[in-house]
């Protein structure tokens, strides 16, 4: 397993985080700079950075909700965050291309899952495309079928990991 440091996001990470988001997602799916800045300010406890020798190479971010599934407004407004809610909703998992397929996303996801467990959440929820369903299943998520989300004009599946 490649050695990395995982830590909570800090305001000064913003530019690098925004850069990585544009590398990892097409424009229609990427979080906007404004959104990322607002998330970092509003719920850094749900935002984890992967660092290799002091350089940010990936991150995972989300918020807390009482909804059992992701809905599109969650992505665009930090107002939907419910600090003492039941479920951690994952917005995005990003690893820069040079570091992919080394288990870094899995380390980030396992860190987030543990944080959710340790703060008394009931589940972690996310949406993903067809080709990543098997990947999230390998991390313990259950596929609940097609999501109502039309984020970025794509088709998504609802995935849930219940503690
Ligand atoms: C998806 C992503 C986060 C995976 O990061 P990673 O650090 O390479 O992931 P891991 O090393 O933990 O796991 C790799 C596994 O993920 C799966 N996987 C990753 N990308 C895949 C793809 N495009 N199609 C199918 N499976 C894929 C495979 O099972 C792969 O295992 P393998 O190398 O044995 O084939 C990274 O490719 C990425 O940032 N992609 C762009 C953004 C994105 O799609 N994020 C996820 C949706 S929120």
UniProtKB/TrEMBL annotation:
Q: Give the matching InterPro entries.
A: Acyl_CoA_acyltransferase, GNAT_dom, SNAT-like
Instruction: Show the PROSITE patterns listed in the entry.
Output: GNAT
A Pfam match: Acetyltransf_1
Q: Which residues form the N-acetyltransferase domain?
A: 4-163
Reading the lineage from the top rank, the first entry is: Bacteria
A single GO molecular-function term is: N-acetyltransferase activity
Record bears the keyword Transferase: yes
Supply the alphabetized keyword list.
Answer: Acyltransferase, Transferase
Return the PANTHER family for the record. SEROTONIN N-ACETYLTRANSFERASE
Q: What is this protein called?
A: GCN5-related N-acetyltransferase
Species, as recorded: Pelosinus fermentans B4
Taxonomy of origin reads: Bacteria, Bacillati, Bacillota, Negativicutes, Selenomonadales
